[in-house]
Input
Amino acid sequence: MIQIQTKQSGKQYWRSLDQLSHTGEFKDWLHREFPANASEMLDGTSRRNLLKLMAASMGLAGLTACRRPVEKILPNVRGVEDYIPGKPFFYSTVFTQGGTGMGLLVEVNDGRPTKIEGNPDHPYSLGAATGYQQASVLGLYDPDRARIPMTGGNPSEWKAFDDFAKDHSTKLGTGEGLRFLSDRICSPSLLAVKAAALAKYPGAKWVEYNAVTHDETAAGGQLAFGQPVITRHKFDKADVILSLDDDFLGLDANTVLPQKEFSRRRRVTSAKDEMNRLYVIESQYSVTGAMADHRLRMRSSDVKGFVADLAAELKVGGNELQIVGGNRDAKRTKWIKAIAKDLTEHKGKCLVVAGPRQPAAVHAMAHLINQALGNVGETVVFFKSAADTVRPQLDAIKELAADMAGGKVSTLVMLGGNPAYTAPADLEFAANLKKVPLSIYLGLEVDETAVLSKWSLPEAHYLESWSDATAPDGTASVQQPMIQPLYFGRTAAELVAQLAGYKDQRAYDIVRNYWIAKFGGKDEAEKTWRKSLHDGVIPGAAQAEIKPTIDVKKINGAIQGAAAATDALEVVFVQSASVYDGRFANNGWLQEAPEPMNKLTWDNAALLSPATAKKLGVAQGDVISIERAGRGMQAPVLIQPGQADDSISIALGYGRVECGRVGKNVGENAYRIRTTDGFRFAADARVRKVAGTYPLAQTQEHGSMEGRPLVREANLEEFRKEPKFAQEMVEHGPLVALYPDHDYSKGYQWGMSIDLNVCSGCNACVIACQSENNIPIVGKDQVIKGREMHWIRMDRYYSGTGEHPDEDPQVVTQPVTCMQCETAPCENVCPVAATTHSPEGLNDMAYNRCVGTRYCSNNCPYKVRRFNFLAWNYGTEEVQKMHYNPNVTVRMRGVMEKCTYCVQRIQEKKILAKREGRRLIKDGEIQTACQQTCPADAIVFGNINDAESRVAKLKGQTRDYSMLEELNTKPRTTYLAKLRNPNEELAEKHNG
Amino acid sequence: MADLATRQDPHVRARLVEGNPSLGQLTETVSKIVESRTQYSWYIAIGVTGSITGILGMMLAYLVSTGIGVWGNNQPVGWAWDITNFVFWIGIGHAGTLISAILFLFRQKWRTSINRFAEAMTLFAVACAGIFPLFHTGRPWRAYWLFPIPNTDLYMWPNFRSPLVWDVFAVSTYATVSALFWYVGLVPDLATLRDRAKNFSKYVYGALSLGWRGSARHWRNYEAAYMILAGLSTPLVLSVHTIVSFDFAASIIPGWHTTIFPPYFVAGAIFSGFAMVVTLMVIARWVFNVEHLVTIKHLENMCKIMLATGTVVGYAYATEFFIAWYSGNPYERFVFINRAFGPYWWAYWSMVSCNVISPQFFWFKKLRTNIPFMFFISIVVNIGMWFERFVIIATSLHRDFLPSSWGYFRPTAVDMLTFFGTFGLFLTLFLLFVRFLPMIAVSEVKGMVATDAMHDAHHAEAVKH
Output
C-alpha cells in the first residue's frame, strides 16, 4: 500500500475518498468518530476537534453508507408477539469472562438492551450480576468500537475479507504454520468448531491465553490429584474459612456465587445465631480482606511458606510431607497455631481456599488440608475437567511466541484478547506479530493488536450475537442476541467456521445446530432449545461430582524452596476492579467506579504500605519507577493502609495506547514489567523515585470515621451480651421537629434496610444504579474536583486496631444513598419546592422544577445529592443514547439529582398491581436496582407499613440503627450493624 | 484644618462643616463637580472600571452558557465564592442604610456630609450582591421561580419554608427601599442642578427632580417622606442581614446551625460597610476637594464604629468557639477546631487578624485620625470580612457529618475574575454617580451650616457668662 506523506508542505488536496482515508487524522477519526463524552468535556481543544470531526465525517459518509442487514431480526413495524410498546422484554443470555459463563437476564426496551441483571435460574448467578457484567451494556453502544474490517491499516469491507479468506484457506494445506489464539474457551459450540478446524488443518495449533487466569488453580488440582479437576467451594457450608491470597468475594471470582454463599453465613437475625469466621492472608487489601474477621497482611510470595507451616502445624499428609517453611516470626507463629486450632475444631466444616495468583503448590496444599480435615464432599467438591491434562497457558503462549519469532507461523488467527497488549513482556509479542506474514485479529475494539494485524475485523458484542457458554460445574447457557449487530461484527465461531469450512457458517446455525444435535429428536429438540433460550439454562448439562485422591509425594517437590529474603520489593499484578485485564478500558462506568479499597478512579497506581512508602521516601502522588527483569515502568504512588510491607500491588489493564477516547492513556501499563517468570507476582523489583507528582482521582480521601458512630460494629460476643449495642451507641435528648410530621400510617411506606454485616463493598450496586438511572460519568478532572455523580456510593472507613492502626487497619464499607428522611433537611430549604415528600415516604425530586441553588445538597447531612455542574450528557452520540433507561429522565445541567428508591420501578409495579386488580403489591415484588444486583443480598427494600414484609422484620432487629439519628432526620434507610466473629486467641482490643 | 483645641474639649461639639462656607459656596462646591467639563482622568477611570465590568459580563456569559462547573464549587462545597461574594456585598451596603436611616433618626447630624455617598454605595453594593444569588443557580433562566409570581409552566408558589425565599423578599425589599430613600433625598439637590443647568441637561435633571420648587409645602412633605423612609429603612438594617444569616442558621450543618448568627452578621455587615465607606470617602474627598465637608471628624467617627463593631465580631467568634465546646456536640466541636487548624486554617487566621486585631488600633486617637493608616485598615477589614464569609460557608461545608464526603474547594480563574468584575461594576456605577449626581447632600449640609452657626452663637454666649 502506498502511504501518503503527511509531512508534505503546503496545502494538500485529496482527490478521492480513498486517498483521504489514508491520512492519520482520518484514521483517528474513523475510530474516534464522535465527540467525547467525559474526558474532553472541558477540553479547550474540543471545538477544534469538532471541526475536524465534521470534516472527517464528510469523508466517512461516503465510505460507510453501505450497511446492509445480513442477519434478520424482526423489525418492530411487523409487530412482535406479545410486544407492548413501552414495555420491556427480558431475555436470558450468558456472559463469559475468564473462561466461565454466568447467566444473565437482559432488559430490552424497544429493541435496545438497556439493563443487565442476573438470571435467577442460573446456579452461578441466582439473580445477581457483577459490576463488569452490569457495565457491559455500555460497551455494546461504545462509539469507539471497531466498525469495519481493516486491512493493512486501511478500511476494507467484509466482502473483501470473505474473498481473501476463501482464497487463503485453500492455500493453508494441512495448516502447518496456522495458529489460533483465543481466550480460554467455555463455549461448547466454539469448541466444536475448533475441533473441526483442527481436524481440517492437522498441522495447526490452538493456543489459549488469558492475561488473568486461573491456570495455577488448575495446575494445583493436577499436582494434587494427578488429574485435572474443577474445584467448587461451598462457602455456605463452611464455619471457618481460610483464604490464602484469594479474593473470592471480589476480583478472583468470575461469578457472584461465592458472595451469595458466603453472605448466607453472615446473616444474623438474633443474638442466638451463629456466624462463620473468615481468615484472610493476603498482600493487597481486597474486599475479602475487608470482610475478614482476621486479616494477616503478607507478601504474596510468603504465602507458600505460611501454608507449609500451617500444614506442618496441622500435621496433614503424615510423615510423607516434608516441609521447609519460610521466615517465621512470633506473630506468624501465633496466627498459624490459632488458625490450625480453629480449623481442627471445625473438621468437615471448614474450608481453605487459595487465590489464582498463588502457585500450584499452594493450591495443592489447600487441597491437602481440605482433604485431611474431611472437607472434601462437604465444603469443597470436585468435578471432572473436560480436558485430560492441564497445559499451562503460559507454556503455550511461550511456544507460540517462539514460533512467531522463528518464522514458523505463517497465519495467526487471534480471537479477541488483545495479546499484543496483554502477553508477557518478555515474549515481545507485538514485535513478533509483525513478523507473521498473515495475522487476522477479531476484536471489539481497534486495539494494540488490531493495529498490528494484517486484517483486523470487528467482533460482534455478546449482546448482539449467538454463542453459548458453560459455568464451572458444566451448566450451559445459550448466548442470544437482543439487537442486530450494530457494526456487522462477527463472532469467533463464525470466523473459525469460515476458515475451517465448517458445515454451518452463521453464528445462529453454529449454536443452534450444535445444541439441536445434542438434544436429539426433532420435535423434542426444538422444544428443549426454546426452553433453553427462555430459561437461560440448559437442563441436564451439569456435571457429576468426583472424589479424587491426593498424591502427597508429588506435592513435596513443589512446596519446597520458600522465597529467599532479599532487599528487593515484591510486585504483585492484580486484575483491575475497573477494567479487568484492560478489555473494559473504554467503559466509562467502570473507569469511574471507585476501586473498592482505595477509591481510585480513572487510574491505576502502585499501592504501597505506609511503612514501605516511608522507607522509599515517597508520598502519595509521587511517581516511582519500578524495574524488574530488565524492564521498567513508572507509576504514581498510592499509600494503602493494610498493604503488606515490601510489596507493591499494581493493577493491570491500564496505559492502553490504542483504545477509544475514554480509556486511551489512562493510567500506566503494568504489563510492561510482567514477564513469564514473574507473571503473577515477582519478588525482584527495584524501585526508585522519579521527579514529578501525579494527580490521583479518589472519590474518598478521608478514611477515618473520626470516632463518629456511622458504621456501628461489634464482635459477635459483644452482640450477644448487648443485642442493642447499635441503638445504644448514640445518646441524645428529645428530638423535636419544627414542622408537623406527615401521616405515614396509611398505604405503602417504602423503606430500606442495608445489612452491613454481609455487604462486601463490591461496587455491583453502584454500576447497577448507574445503568438503571442513566447516571452520567464525569471524567477524571471532575472526580478530582469532587463532582462524581453516583447516586449510591460505597463509603470505606479504616478502623484502627492492634499495634499499628495506620499500617494494619480493619476496613468497613457502607453503601450510602439517599436515606429518604421523613423530616428531610433538603426539603424545607429548597426555595422552589423541587424536592418534596411523597405520601409514600419518598423524598421526590422534580428535575424540571429545580433551579439549581444547591441548598438542598449543602443541607443534606449524608451528602448524597448530586448536582449537574456541567452538561454531562451533552454531545452524547445517538448510539450512546441507546443504553438509556426510557423510564428515567436524562438530567440537564444545573439541576440536582439523587436516589429515589428507583421510583420508576415502584410506579411500574403499582400500575401492574392496579391492572391486575390487586390491592397490594406483594412483598419483594419491587426490587430497587441496587437490591436486585447485590450478590450478598445486603439490601432489602419494601413496605414498612406491612409488618410481615422482609424490610419491616429487618428493621425490627436489634442491630437496626439509623445513621445520624440524633439529627432527627428519621431516615427510611436504616442499617444493620456490622459484626465480626474473631477468634479469641487472636483477638485484639476492639475500639468500637 | 481642624480646630484641634475645640474638638478636644468634650463640652464643645466639633464643627460639622469647616471653614464657615456660605450657602452659596456650598452649592457651588458640590454642583461644580457635576457641572464642570469632564476630566480626562474620569474617562480613564471609567475606561478601566468599564473594562473590568466587561470581564464580569464575559464571565457571567461563560457561566450561563457552560454551567456552574466553571467555578470551583463541588460536592460537598455547593456554595463557595458565589454566596461568599453575595454576603460580602450585601454587608457592604449596610453602612449606607445605617448612616442614612438610623443616624438620621438618632439626630446624628454629622451624617449629612456622607449619607448620600454611603447610600449610593448601598445601592451599588446591592446591585453587585444581587448578581450572585441569580447566577449561582444552575438554571438562572428559571430563577424567577423564587418570586411568588404566576408562571405559565407550573402554577406553584415558592416554598415559603426556605430561607432562600425569605432572602429574596429581604433583599428585594431592601433594594427597593434603599433606592427610594436615596432618590427622595436627591430631589432637592436635583432641582438645584436643574436650576443651574445651562444645556440640555436641565431637561434630564428637570424630569428627575419631579417638579421640586422648594416651597414650604414641598419641604414639609419632603421631610415627612424622608422620615417615613428612614423609619422603614431602620428595621431593614437589622432584618436583611438577619435573614441572610438564616440561610445558614436555619440549616442543619455544624458551623451554620447556630443562633448567634443574626446579631453577629449584622455587626459584621456594619463593620464591613463602614470600612468600605472609609475606603471610598478617603479617596473621594481628596479627589473632589471636599475635605472641609467630609472632615476628619466624620472619618474618626466611622473609625470608632469600626472599632465597636469589629470588637462585637471578635466577641462573636469567641462565643462560637465557647458554645462549640460548651454544647458538647462533637460535630460542632470538630467544625471549629477544623476551622482554626484544618486545611483552611489560613483563611481562618486571615479573618481573625484582619477583623479582630486590626480595628483595635483605633483605640488610639493618633491612629484613628491618621488618614493613610485608616485607609489601610479599612482595606484590611474589607479583606477580613470577605474571609469571614468564606470561612463560614466553605469551611463548614467542606467537612460536615460523614468523613467519606469530605472535600476541598479550590477557586477557579472564573471564580476570581467574576468577583473581580463586580468591583468593576461597583466602581463604574460610582464613577457615574459622582459625575452626574451631587455626591454630597447639599440641602442637608446647608442645614448643618446653620446648626454650626447656632452652636457658635450658643458657645459665644456661654463664654460670655
Chain B touches chain A through 53 residues (CB under 8 Å). Chain B has 16 helices and no strands. The radius of gyration of chain B is 23 Å.
